[in-house]
Design a protein that fits this description.
CATH class: Alpha Beta
Helix content: 25-40%
Largest sheet: 3 strands, antiparallel
Shape: globular
Distance between the termini: 24 Å
Number of strands: 6
CATH superfamily: CBS-domain
Strand order of the largest sheet: 1-2-3
CATH architecture: Roll
């Protein structure tokens, strides 16, 4: 899990998100307002708005699928697979405070590390 997830405000524009995608080489941004997760903005959402003028709030996916920090990796992966998503916000016990983000690449990297550890003992 990335605990330093890059986020975006719902009042920022699609151009702002596009810039963050490019600079940080990412494909999704949790949308946070007043410290609470209210949505997610992904590359798929990017196609819904005009760069420069459209606010994130207008094209984000509200109420995203989330997991809690104490969920097991298998449960996280299953939830991502069942919902066909490439990243999933991790929230605190209140269900709204963002504590991190898990992406498929995080899971792949973890799998590789375990495979190498098993191989080299």
């Amino acid at each position: 899990m990335k605990t330093d997830a890059i986020t975006i405000s719902p009042n920022k524009t699609v151009s702002d998100a596009k810039w963050l995608f490019h600079v940080h080489r990412i494909g999704g941004l949790p949308v946070v307002e007043d410290g609470k997760l209210i949505g997610i903005f992904t590359l798929a959402d990017l196609k819904k708005g005009r760069a420069g003028t459209t606010k994130i709030r207008a094209v984000m996916t509200p109420n995203p699928v989330v997991v809690h920090a104490d969920e097991k990796l298998g449960e996280v992966f299953d939830k991502m697979a069942d919902n066909r998503i490439g990243r999933i916000p991790v929230v605190s016990s209140d269900g709204k405070t963002l504590v991190g983000l898990v992406s498929l690449s995080d899971i792949q990297n973890l799998s590789r590390m375990h495979a190498l550890r098993d191989y080299f003992g």
